Amino acid sequence: MTTTKKNMLPPGLVNNLQEVLLSRKGGNSNTNNDEQQQKPDAVTDSTETSTSASDENDNSKPVVLVTNGEGIYSLGLVYLVQALVRSGLYNVHVCAPQSDKSVSSHSVTVRETITVTPAEIDGATAYEVSGTPVDCVSLALSGALFSWSKPLLVISGINRGSSCGHHMFYSGVVGGAREALVSGVPSLSISLNWKREESQESDFKDAVAVCLPLITAAIRDIEKGVFPKSCFLSIEIPTSPSANKGFKLTKQSMWRSAPNWLAVSANRHPSSAAHFMSNQQSLGLQLAQLSRDASAAGAARRVSAQRQNVEVESVGAVKSDTNKVKKYFRLEFINKEQEEAEEDLDFKALDNGFVAVTPFSLCPQIEVDIQTAASDWISGALQVEQ
Fold first, then answer.
1. Per residue in 99-153, pLDDT tens?
2. Is 161 inside any structural domain?
């Protein structure tokens, strides 16, 4: 394992990681379970399932809450939950979005009611939520949904695609882990560096096998009280998880894909333009339009009562302004060639085949030179204004 001089991970956790890495050299016991995981929602063993179900409210087992950004039935989450349940060590609960919210960042749903529905994931207590990953974690930790007061650990993932560098600010899977830290609960976010031309679905199983030792070490050290309380850990798994070179403590880089906005022609590709509007957005717009129409019709009827010469239009009629032309755009991110960078940066370690483990704090420290420059500018600006 490679570490930096300023190691934010406690020595106990580092030692545990070194032990599990040494044990992995003799063979990975998790690979023997591949045949049992042919389907994400398959029941691996009837006895195991019934035992796990009976352990739902077993206070003797640590509670682990799992969420993600891509939806509750995404392969990364399902394979991870199956592995946690199969271990028999944890009381596994799931609260995850019902649809893909992978770029929702730290957004929450306000002034709108979200729906929560039980989900079928064998051996776990699971709910799918119409909101964001942050909604899911916030709701789960509120005490309104689950009977327990607080989980031992929140795991957000496994996400399809890297959250390195500036992508961390967009990432819904990172948002879920960050919300847990805001609430004082230790958390991990896990992402697989998925590449369209190289990756395959079985890589999620390998990714689970890679991160399980770190999850086990984290839970063990949380119970000992030596897991870091001021940060959450972002775990980035390389494109070929089974060929990884080990864990490496890293720092957040400035890496970012280039945003590329594509114009979509509504005339030439009407179905494509409509495709970019989700069912929920479409329904919301329809309801909003009905509300506006109803209000307009109500106002018209009131005016009509006073002025008989005013004709009221039907509720469903909508006047369109033909002079206004809608334009449609779609955002895509294009990976850029990266210049030479320090080996301990997240994306660099990931590209080199390491599992990058990056601590994130809620209060990032401002560099001294940046603090000085900002202070000088503010002082100068205020003097000019005075």
1. 999 888 898 999 999 999 999 999 999 999 999 999 999 999 999 999 888 999 9
2. yes
125-129 vs 91-97, strand pairing mode: parallel
Rounded Cα distance between 209 and 169, Å, is 27
Residue 102 lies in a domain: yes
Domain hosting 234: range is 61-252+339-369
Predicted confidence (pLDDT) per residue in 201-225, tens digit: 999 999 999 999 999 999 999 999 9
SS (H, E, C) 54-83: HCCCCCCCCEEEEECCCCCCCHHHHHHHHH
Residue 321 within any structural domain of the chain: no
Overall number of domains in the chain: 1
Helix or strand (DSSP H, E) at 284:
helix 279-306
d(CA 351, CA 334): 16
Nearest to 346 by CA among 196, 166, 188, 158: 166
Q: CATH number for the domain including 143?
A: 3.40.1210.10
Calculate what percentage of the chain has a pLDDT beyond 70: 67
In sequence order, the β-bridge partners of residue 334 are: 258
Length, in residues, of the chain: 386
Residue 344 is assigned to a structural domain of this protein: yes
Q: How many Å apart are CA 219 and CA 198, to the nearest integer?
A: 32
Per-residue pLDDT tens over the stretch 46-58: 333 333 344 455 6
Q: What is the CA radius of gyration of the chain?
A: 25
